[in-house]
Write a structure and sequence with these properties.
The complex is a heterodimer. Chain A is α+β, with helices and mostly antiparallel strands. Chain A contains twelve helices and eight strands. In chain A, about 40% of the residues lie in helices and about 15% in strands. By secondary structure, chain B is of the alpha+beta class. Helix content of chain B is about 50%, strand content about 15%. The chains are: A alpha+beta, B alpha+beta.
Chain lengths: ~400, ~375
C-alpha cells in the first residue's frame, strides 16, 4: 500500500469513528453551520464535539502548519482528506472567515508572533472574524476608502491609531468578535496609504446595525467607528501597504465565493428536479424546454467542478495564474445564480411560498434571492472581467 | 492525481507544440487546401507524425506502441487544433486504434505496423444520416459463405477516399435500436462492390459517402466478436469524442489567442480596440469558458485513463462543453476581427470552419448534453 493509500485508510477510519451521525447530514443553511467565536451557541452537543475533535487533530485547517493549529497536510493529503469527508457526508467542523480569508493573509504577511497567536485561535474556532472592506462611497472602487486611522504616540498607554469612519456590507459584524479592517493611514497616496488593521469589536466606539435584505435575512451590517483605539502591534504587513494584503485576501475571498458554483455536491440538478416536474412516458422530464436548460446547466456545472479541482491543484503546486481566482469567482457565481433560477422555475408556485411550513420558511425563494449577491459581493462580475482582461489577457487600459 | 499535466505530459506538449508550429502550421494547411489536394492532408507529414512517436501513443507496448493514454493523445490533438494541422491522427491513431485494440492478433498485425510507421490511414464508417445516431445503425452484414456481405450506406467518413481500411459498424442480428447485434468490420479499400464518393467539406477536409452494395468480407475482418460490436464501437466513439473535444480546446484556444492579439493591435478612435470595455468583458468571458472547457476535457481524459466509473459521463460533458466554448471562441473571434474576419486572408475564419466540422464529429453539443440528462435519469 502506498503512503497515500495508507493515509486515506487512516483518515477514513478516523472520520468513521469520530464524526457524529448528526454531523453527517447536509447543512440546511448558514444558521445550521458552526461559526465558532466567543458568543457562539452550539446547535447541538454533536456540533460542539465535532469541532473539538477536529480542532484537536488540526483538521479544521488540515493544510496549515501544525504550529499554527493545522495538521500540516500536503496538497495531495488535503485533497484526500476533503474527498473522504465528502464521501461520508461529513459537515465542515468550522465555517470561518478566519479560515477562508484572514488565515491565508496572515500566513503570508503576518509576523511570527501574529501567526502563533491569531492562527491558533482561528483553528480552534475561538474567535469569529468579520471583514471591514466596503464603505458607503467605496464599493467597486474599494481603494477610494475614507475610514481614517490617526497615529497617536502615547508613552503611557502605548502608541496607537484612532480610527473613525464607516464600513458597510460587513458580514456578521453583529456576531463577530474581531474585525480585519482596511483603514486609510495616509490621505496623500491612494494605493500606498491604506493599512490592514485587526481589532476587537468590543473596543469602545465600535457599533453595528444590521441591514435587512430582499431575502428577508440580515447577514450584513453597517459598522461604525467613533474614535476607536487600535494598538500599534495590531497591523498586518507594513504601514501604508495594506492594499497588498487586501488584494491577496480578496483572492481567497473570491475563491471562497466561487465555491457556490459547486452547489451541494450532488452530481445533477436535473435529477433533483424530477420530483417537482415529473417524468413523461419516455422517462424524460415533463417539460422539454426546462429539461434542455437543466441538461445544459448540468454540463456547465460538471465542467466547472473539474475547473475547481484543476484550479485548487494548480494553486497548491504554484502553477496557477495569480489572477485566476477572479475567473473562478466570475464563473462560479454566475453558475450559482443560474442554478437557483432553475430551481425556482422547476418549483413553480410552490417555490413562491415565503413563510409556509411546506416551504421550510421559504427556503427556495430566500436562497434564490441571496444568490443574487454572489456576483456583487467580494468584487462584482464586471470587476472580475476587468481584472481578467487586464491581468490575464493583458488587454490595454482605456 | 493532480488535475494538471505531469512532467512527461508537459514535455510531450512542448514537443507537439514545436512540431505543429514548425511542420503543421496554418500556412501548411493553406498550402494543401490551395492545391486542392485530393486527400486533404500530407502523407509526408503523417510519416513525420510517426517519427515523432505520436501515432503510437494509444497503441499498447505489446503491439509496439507507447502504451500511453487519452490525456497524451489529447495533448497532441490540442496542438493540432491550435494549428489547424490537417492529418488523419484523430481518425486513425486515436479512434481507429481504440477499435483495433479489441481486434485479434492477425488483424492488429495487418494494420498497426502501418499506423506506427505513418503509412496507413483509417476511415470511420459509422454515421448513416446527417446527424450522429450510433444507436440507429441500420446497415446490415449478412452471413455469406465464410464471411459476411455488407449492404447499406455510410456518410461523413473522414479521409474515406484515401483510407487503406474502413472500420464499418453494421448490424449482424437483431433490429435497429437493439444494444446487441452490432459487429465492427475492417474493410480494405479495394473491396469489391464498394462505392466511395469523396466530398470536400467546409473545413477543406475530405469526407466520403460510401455505398456498400453487397460487399463481401471474410470472417477474419471482424474486429472483436460477432454481434458484440457494441463494446468495440463504444471504445472507438469514446476515443474519438474525447479526442475531438481536445482538438476543439486547441481550435478555441487558438482562435481566442489570435483574437486577443488582434484586440491589442487594431486601433480605432485613436486607441487599441482591446482597451474598450465592451470587448474586454466579452474576451474575459470567453477566456473563462475556454479554461473550464479545458479542465473538463482533461478531467475526462484522466478518468478514462484511470478506468473510472464516471468516465463515460465526463466524456459527454467534455464534448458538449468543448463544443460550446470553442463555438463561442470562433464566433467572437470573427466578430471582434470585424471586416477582416470575413476575409480568407485572415486565419480566424479558418478556425470557425474547423470548429464547425469538429463539433459535428461523433455527436454535437446537443447530442452529448442529452446524454448527460439520460445518464442522470431525466
Amino acid at each position: 500500500m502506498s503512503d497515500l493509500e495508507q493515509f486515506k485508510t487512516e483518515i477514513r477510519s478516523w472520520l468513521e469513528e469520530n464524526c457524529p451521525p448528526e454531523m453527517r447530514k447536509p447543512v440546511r443553511g448558514d444558521e445550521d453551520m458552526c461559526w465558532g467565536g466567543r458568543n457562539f451557541e452550539f446547535q447541538s452537543e454533536a456540533q460542539k464535539l465535532w469541532l473539538e475533535r477536529c480542532a484537536a487533530k488540526g483538521y479544521t485547517v488540515p493544510d496549515w502548519p501544525k504550529e499554527y493549529g493545522g495538521a500540516g497536510m500536503s496538497p495531495a493529503e488535503t485533497k484526500i482528506f476533503r474527498r473522504e469527508m465528502a464521501k461520508l457526508g461529513c459537515r465542515s467542523p468550522l465555517s470561518s472567515f478566519g479560515i477562508w480569508m484572514l488565515g491565508p493573509a496572515l500566513l503570508k504577511f503576518g509576523t511570527e508572533e501574529q501567526k502563533v497567536h491569531y492562527l491558533n485561535q482561528i483553528a480552534r474556532g475561538e474567535i469569529r472574524w468579520c471583514q471591514g472592506y466596503s464603505e458607503p462611497g467605496s464599493g467597486s472602487d474599494l481603494v477610494s476608502l475614507q475610514t481614517f486611522g490617526e497615529e497617536v504616540s502615547d508613552p503611557v498607554g502605548g502608541d496607537h491609531w484612532v480610527v473613525n469612519g464607516q464600513k458597510v456590507w460587513t458580514s456578521y459584524a453583529d456576531k463577530a468578535d474581531w474585525i480585519f479592517c482596511l483603514v486609510r493611514t495616509d490621505k496623500e497616496d491612494k494605493y500606498r496609504g491604506i493599512s490592514f488593521l485587526l481589532f476587537d469589536m468590543e473596543t469602545p466606539g465600535v457599533s453595528t446595525k444590521p441591514i435587512k435584505l430582499i431575502s428577508g435575512s440580515s447577514p450584513f451590517c453597517e459598522t461604525f467607528f467613533d474614535d476607536v483605539k487600535v494598538p500599534k502591534d495590531q497591523i498586518v504587513g507594513e504601514l501604508n501597504r495594506g492594499w497588498d494584503v487586501a488584494k491577496y485576501l480578496l483572492g481567497h475571498e473570491r475563491e471562497m465565493i466561487s465555491g457556490g458554483g459547486l452547489g451541494d455536491g450532488s452530481p445533477s440538478l436535473g435529477a433533483k428536479m424530477t420530483g417537482a416536474i415529473g417524468l413523461n412516458g419516455l422517462g424524460m422530464l415533463d417539460d422539454q424546454i426546462l429539461r434542455s436548460e437543466l441538461a445544459q446547466f448540468d454540463v456547465d456545472a460538471l465542467a466547472f467542478r473539474a475547473m475547481a479541482e484543476k484550479f485548487m491543484d494548480e494553486m497548491k503546486a504554484g502553477k496557477s495564474h495569480p489572477a485566476q481566482p477572479n475567473m473562478m469567482k466570475y464563473a462560479g457565481t454566475e453558475l450559482n445564480k443560474q442554478r437557483h433560477e432553475l430551481v425556482m422555475s422547476a418549483g413553480g408556485s410552490d417555490a413562491l411560498e415565503w413563510e409556509s411550513e411546506a416551504s421550510r420558511g421559504g427556503k427556495k425563494p430566500r436562497e434564490w434571492l441571496r444568490t443574487k449577491a454572489n456576483s456583487i459581493e467580494g468584487g462584482t462580475s464586471e470587476i472580475m472581467l476587468n481584472v481578467i482582461s487586464k491581468r490575464i489577457l493583458e488587454l490595454p487600459d482605456g | 492525481m493532480p488535475l494538471f499535466l505531469d512532467d512527461d505530459q508537459s514535455m510531450l506538449q512542448d514537443s507537439a507544440r514545436e512540431f505543429m508550429k514548425a511542420e503543421g502550421s496554418v500556412s501548411h494547411f493553406r498550402e494543401f487546401r490551395d492545391k486542392n489536394c485530393k486527400d486533404g492532408f500530407s502523407h509526408g507529414l503523417w510519416k513525420q507524425f510517426a517519427e515523432m512517436g505520436f501515432t503510437g501513443i494509444l497503441v499498447s507496448e505489446d503491439d509496439g506502441g507507447l502504451g500511453l493514454g487519452h490525456v497524451e493523445a489529447g495533448v497532441v490533438l490540442e496542438q493540432i487544433g491550435r494549428n489547424l494541422t490537417p492529418s488523419p491522427f484523430l481518425t486513425t491513431a486515436v479512434a481507429g486504434v481504440a477499435a483495433l485494440s479489441h481486434a485479434d492478433a492477425e488483424l492488429k498485425g495487418q494494420y498497426l505496423p502501418g499506423i506506427l510507421s505513418g503509412d496507413t490511414v483509417l476511415g470511420l464508417a459509422i454515421d448513416e444520416k446527417s446527424k450522429h445516431r450510433p444507436d440507429q445503425i441500420a446497415m446490415t452484414a449478412e452471413r455469406s459463405g465464410n464471411g459476411f456481405k455488407l449492404t447499406g450506406r455510410k456518410q461523413f467518413v473522414i479521409h474515406g477516399a484515401s483510407a487503406d481500411m474502413l472500420i464499418v459498424a453494421a448490424r449482424t442480428s437483431g433490429s435497429t435500436g437493439d444494444a446487441d447485434g452490432l459487429t465492427l468490420f475492417a474493410v480494405p479499400k479495394d473491396a469489391a462492390n464498394m462505392d466511395v464518393n469523396p466530398v470536400r467539406l467546409v473545413d477543406s477536409a475530405v469526407a466520403a459517402h460510401v455505398k456498400f452494395d453487397g460487399v463481401e468480407v471474410n470472417a477474419d475482418s471482424v474486429i472483436g466478436e460477432v454481434d458484440q460490436g457494441g463494446e468495440v464501437l463504444g471504445a472507438l466513439l469514446t476515443a474519438g469524442r474525447i479526442g475531438s473535444a481536445s482538438e476543439m480546446v486547441g481550435v478555441g484556444g487558438g482562435a481566442m489567442d489570435i483574437t486577443v492579439d488582434y484586440l491589442k493591435e487594431r486601433k480605432q478612435f485613436g486607441s487599441p480596440i482591446g482597451s474598450f470595455q465592451a470587448l474586454q468583458h466579452r474576451a474575459a468571458h470567453l477566456y473563462s469558458e475556454m479554461e473550464i472547457a479545458g479542465a473538463a476535457v482533461l478531467k475526462a481524459g484522466q478518468l478514462l485513463d484511470a478506468g473510472a466509473d464516471n468516465a463515460a459521463l465526463y466524456v459527454h460533458v467534455a464534448k458538449a462543453k468543448a463544443s460550446k466554448a470553442a463555438n463561442l471562441a470562433v464566433r467572437e473571434g470573427v466578430q471582434m476581427h470585424g471586416g477582416v474576419g470575413m476575409t480568407d486572408e485572415y486565419d480566424i475564419g479558418l478556425y470557425m470552419k474547423r470548429d464547425r466540422a469538429l463539433s459535428e464529429f461523433l455527436g454535437d453539443a446537443n447530442y452529448h448534453t442529452n446524454k448527460v440528462a439520460e445518464l442522470h435519469g431525466y
